[in-house]
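Archive entry: two folds, one per protein. Generate the first.
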Amino acid sequence: MSAWLFGTHGLSVADWLQLFGHFLLLSLLAVGGAMSTAPDMQRYVVGERGWLGNAEFGDSIALAQAAPGPNVLYVAVVGFNVGGLLGALATLVGTLLPSTLLTLHATRWGERRRDGHAVRAFTSGMAPLTLGLLLATSWLLFEPAAGEPLAWALAALALAVMLRTRWSPLVPITVGALAGALGFAG
């Protein structure tokens, strides 16, 4: 029971507060959604703190993305793998609290000023930032399979399909999942 609640890494109260604080700060950078901050989450929990390995971090994201529900669920899975239920609570609340409050306030403020030059300029400037963060996340998730020629071919095919068709993103995801399940990639 205690491993489920507190995790297996022996985190102290200070560790949970640092985990909460780090995810709280990352939440304010999650311009393209929580997934856009995955590279820094990986740097913190794998590289800096050593709480998870690269494979365990990647598996956390994959498990959460396979489950139905919001995209942000991976944050709770990473937190659970770091510090049990308290780790999941620290990462999820840390991620959701500031972004929710900021979004609520900014939406109300922006709606009153939507035709202003500053609001339009800000909105236009956020698009390349969001794209860059999502590309960094894509590379982080693709990196373990980067040595596989078929992985590159599937990535190129998925990109071509997404740029040239109106198909659902589930089509290339399903093809990639089938290739992996059959042992062709990754």
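Generate the second and append.
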Amino acid sequence: MHSPPVRARDPRARRLLRLFDGLDGEAQRTLLRFAEFLAQEKDAGRETAVGDRRPPQPRSIPRPKDESVVKAIRRLADTYFMLDKDALLNETSTLMAQHVMQGRSAAEVIDDLERLFREEYERLVGNAK
């Protein structure tokens, strides 16, 4: 289920545009890539057998050297395709903001993202038992 489109008169849209306008070019591109990630169909790629209550195993996608935070989020979303992205949105957004707005290193943020996705998967597996 998708949210209705955000209109320019919506205060959230105006706030987002103000924030976007205040960023430099690279940060704007990062924000756009992150927004594209969030906009992906949340159920895309979910693969569970009918009647099988156990979640599928994560895909094995190695972490590339010098990976960007946005690419790490995409990789982790592909690795843990069975997770509900909405459940990870708040913490993922916070970590992304720490990188973009506060200058926290990509490697540290990616380590935390990997931990976040792994722990969410472990919760999912625990709930399926």
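Annotation attached to the second fold: The chain has one domain: 25-128. Residues 25-128 form one domain.
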